[in-house]
Design a protein that fits this description.
8 helices, single chain, about 15% strand, Transferase(Phosphotransferase), domain 1, about 260 residues
Length: about 260
């Protein structure tokens, strides 16, 4: 099995011209589980994680998967993570004390929380019919999921897409449907914006959910919901979609509180 960064084409930006094999524990685990056979190319590099295109094992019935690999806790930082962690319950007393005391073990457990939460949230939302990538497998440092794109390139972020007005209106309505669906099963994205939505052939796919919050326990939930909607409304206003983020957020929150979603 060839286990390198690219097949035929190399990119010095990522392998620095070394020609060395790309070996990672997460790849070993995904390979051992019979899920992937190769890393083909990097798709995205961010502050918290990098995403790679992987060749799927034919036995999975898929051609490609995307592997989201989280950076070591020392080199990644979620913005204002206390806002997202409010109301989080750690039932194990030893782990809770370690996290609160910020010991080495506690920091490792805190890092693992973000990865585990994203996989669990993706699983919950996908099962409910939300427009998110299908989660496939997770390990301590990475998540394997559905690849959104084609053989030529990954689907672009919504921020890089120019829409016709009628198309923009339909897409906005679909994203609002997703926001409402999420809220009905006690999930608020918390960082929803055109940066975290992929667009392909008229369809939006919502990504990047490690910071998702439970509105039943997080005191910042209403603020995060309003911020998500503000980001979406500002983007779609560029294409003539008239909305009122404040009213939308208020109506959704009221319906959530009174269980009428």
């Amino acid at each position: 099995m060839s286990r390198h960064l690219f097949d035929d084409e190399r990119d010095d930006e990522f392998d620095e011209g070394s020609g060395q094999a790309f070996e990672e524990p997460w790849l070993d685990e995904f390979y051992a589980e019979g899920l992937v056979t190769d890393i083909l190319m990097p798709l995205k590099s961010g502050k918290e994680a990098s995403v790679y295109l992987c060749r799927a094992n034919p036995s999975t019935g898929e051609r490609f998967f995307a592997a989201k690999v989280f950076r070591a806790r020392r080199s990644r930082a979620f913005k204002d993570d206390s806002m997202y962690k409010h109301g989080r319950v750690i039932t194990n007393a030893r782990t809770r004390r370690a996290v609160q005391g910020k010991t080495r073990f506690g920091r490792e457990m805190d890092h693992a929380f973000w990865i585990g939460q994203e996989f669990e949230t993706l699983s919950l939302l996908f099962a409910a019919g939300a427009d998110v990538p299908r989660p496939v497998y997770s390990c301590p440092t990475a998540i394997l999921m559905q690849y959104v794109g084609d053989e030529a390139a990954p689907a672009p972020q919504l921020k890089d897409v120019r829409l016709e007005q009628d198309e923009a209106g339909a897409l906005f309505d679909r994203l609002m449907w997703n926001v409402e669906l999420m809220l009905s099963i006690n999930v608020i994205h918390g960082d929803l914006s055109p940066y975290n939505v992929l667009y392909q052939e008229g369809k939006a796919t919502i990504i990047d959910l490690p910071q998702a919050v439970d509105p039943r326990t997080n005191a910042n939930a209403r603020h995060l919901l309003a911020r998500d909607l503000d980001h979406l409304c500002r983007y779609f206003a560029r294409f003539g979609v008239r909305t009122d983020a404040i009213k939308l957020a208020s109506n959704l929150w009221r319906r959530f509180v009174f269980a009428t979603l």
